Every structure is written in C-alpha cells, then in structure tokens.
C-alpha cells in the first residue's frame, strides 16, 4: 500500500498538560527464537527522552530501528533479536508492564520457506514448450511447508479476477471445475480496470481485490497452482516490489494455527509475460480485461499446461510480537490497543536471495518509513501515556507485531491469542508508514467512513484546524494491507489514520508528489532509509491526534462501534453479546 522539528514550545507544553480536545530441502527444526539466550538489549545510547511526544525522540527511535545494524528487521534474523530487545528496553524504561503475562514477548510460530530461485515454470502451449524464469518473468512459492512440490501438466484456466462474492452475485468460478488445475487471474477486483462504479466499489479496492484473498479462494476451489497477472496500476506497485517481496525467505503460520486450505504453488507473472503467453493461447490480454469486468463472465479454459518442480529450503522457527501494558487506574480489564508492525524485508545480501549482489551495492532493506516510523510512533505515544496525569482509567496496550510483510501473520496470531480479550478491547489504533513530509491541513483516514472512532478523531483534528478525508488512492487497497484488518474482521473497531496530502507548504500537489516519490523510489527498496532532512513537525502533529483519540477513550466509558451498514458491524455486535463472552 513514511527532519528537524518545527514544533513550537507551546504545542509541546499543551500536550504535556492535556488540552480540552485531547481530554475529549529441510533444515532441522530450530528452537523458538524467544527461547534463545538474550543478548545485551539494544538501547538508544545517551539520548535523553522527553515526557511528551517529541520530534527528536521520534527521530532517535527511527534511526536506531532503521540502522544497518538492525539489518532490515527480518523475522527470525539477528535483526529481529536487536529489534525486540530494543523495544523491550524502551518499554521497561517507561515503566510499562509486560503485556503477555510476565513477558513482553508473544512467541509466534512460523514456517520459513525459501524457494530455489533457479526454479522455472514449464509451459506447453499447443505442443510448443517454453519456460518462465524466476524474478524475470514470474515469482512463485508454496505455503505447504514442504521442501519439494511438483505440479505436472496442470491445465490452465483463466478465471477473471478470481472472485467468488455471493453478496455481489458474482462468481468467477461458476460452472468450472479447477481441481488440480492452474488458475490465472487479474489483480484488483471487477470494476477497477473499467472504472465502472456499479461493479463492486469501482475504483476503490475491496478485499476481493487483494492477492491474499485470491490465493485463498483458489485454494478453496481446489486449484493446484495460481498465478496473478501483475499490472502496476492494479497492484499499486511495480514489478520490482513483487520481485523483492517474494525473493528470499517467506513466512507462514503453521497449518495447525491457520487451518485454511493452502495452494501447493502460488505466485505472479509479469504483464508482458502474460500478454505473450495468452497470445500463444489464442487470447488477447486487453480483450480479457474487458470481458472479466462484465457481469456474467465465465471462466475460460486455455489450451495449455503448466508444470513446475518447486524446491524450497524449509524450517520451523518462531518470531515475536512485543506487548507492553499500562494498567488502567479504574477499569484495567478494558483496553485500547496501539499497534505497529516492526518487521521489514531484511538483508538481501544473505543466502537465499538469488545471485550475489554486486560489490558495493546496498542490500539492506532498512524499512525506515515502512515501518520504523509506526513503531517509533507507538513508542512516543506510550511515553506520553506513561507520564500522563491523571493516569488513564482504562488500560493501554502497545503491540509491535511481526510478520506483517508476510501477510499480516503476527497480528493474525495475536487476534487468535489476545493478551486482552477481544470483547474487552475497546479499539485498535494502527500506525503504519507515517508521512514525514511536513505539516498538513488534513488527515487521511484509510477506509474512511468505517467506525465511530472517526468521530473522536474529527474532534481532535478540528482542534488542530485540520479536516479528515479518505485516502486519495482507494484503489490501492491499503485498508486490507495493514494489521488492523485482522482486528476488524474479528469485530474490534479499528482506526488507521495518518497525515494527509494537503501540505501547509506546497498544498495537495506537493503532498501527492512526495507520497508518489516514496512509493516509486523507496517503498520495499533499499532506499527506504532515515533521512535527517525529513520534516517531522507533521508526523508529530499526527501522533498528537492519535494520542488524543486514545486519551479520550481511556478516560471515558464509551464503546465505539462500526457505522451502520459497515461489513464489520455484525462481527462486533456478536463479539459484544453477553452469550459470546
């Protein structure tokens, strides 16, 4: 699906005092990472932290977490050890309690699978053999946890967008049996490429447009393999992002912790590769886009077969969520959760990332904006709550989750094993890829129009003379690409908000240009590094606002709900029924 502070002394003092608005080939199984002897905790050196949310403190956290020393914070790596030890040390320094019993850590079991990048897809197109190369033409992997998976002479079937949505009267699998076959499909959902507002939500991506859903549905349909055709607009990122994200170790929850059906082989092919392949199969890619966006589309069997012998290095490991708690003074059993994912893509100079990188090239994916900024944000908010007078009535939980980059797995595991029961979790506030581009006149609420949490945020933002609005590119599907989504599916009201595009200096054009520049040049690339030139006054204002939402909830008896008509309201109502408790 993000600078020396110009905050005034008055703003800092106001935060500390609390304004009216704020008040309102397998390896042997390894021992779990959490059980390894702890090294000396990483610290922020001699930095003296302020009690209030402060730009210099925020910058210090990001610099440490996004440093080369932390090696891109890959789960199961030495970078994980440094990251979770740093977080534990910071929470202890603030005086926060362990959030998972007597531990700051929640062990998340995971299966690590690294595909052999010499793997090729073999195609038989009307008797003519051809091959697709890993990285150049396609990327594939397996969720089975097996070191070798073979698919032999699997029939190809084009299934449009791979969507089965009864409430939309839409089923791309209707009338076709894909058991044992290879399904080929588009990214995003019906209505996107035609920009038809009558289909699904038109330009705005629904959950059916996410690649995770498409693979899940293909598995439910019994397919042997699934390939998504990449296009930059539909995916909202280029092929290099796909390649970087699918290279090297991939992680999943063990089947016992996530028993949904799994595909033997899943992956992507480039748009150019798809166009050539489909032409050889007697189909035109542009015409298929048109056909797949029309109600009543029927899957198209293709006169070709796919074979692949996918070898992978596998191993069972574990990673860690980090959980800290500030008990409430009056209703400690009720909690507001602030969350951010700490993981990123690691060091691609290590074994398992294909050919050795050229000498002198940068192989560390530091993930400064994605998502050292979010983690720094919850640390700053935790600092403010820990020093708040009077202390909050409700408890605050600060949750730094792992394996977001692998499909929101750390938050998925937490929701299944919450430190605070979900029916006692008042709300979740998620911080992910915070903009560092200066003060803005607005705030972006991803999934705008979802829950009553927005009413609270609106009041706080108005005190900052800011307005709320939806994300500028709803087709990117950011609502389904961050960890709050697992809480939302369980019914817990969730807010995902950050600084907007209408910058005080430069307006909307400058804001959108800066956001596009990050997406195109640094997102999921080694260039996502801390920059001393960042303009931090805007993100500090964002943190003030998000702190204000939590402060309002923590000092009240309010139980926000999803708005009427929202897809998650029924799950929330069921969650809160006395019989469900």
TrEMBL record:
Residues 321-537 form the Peptidase M28 domain. It comes from the Bacteria. Keywords: Aminopeptidase, Hydrolase, Metal-binding, Protease, Signal, Zinc. Pfam families: Peptidase_M28. InterPro entries: M28_fam, PA_dom_sf, Peptidase_M28. SUPFAM superfamilies: PA domain, Zn-dependent exopeptidases. Residues 1-23 form the signal peptide. This is M28 family metallopeptidase. It comes from Lysobacter panacisoli.
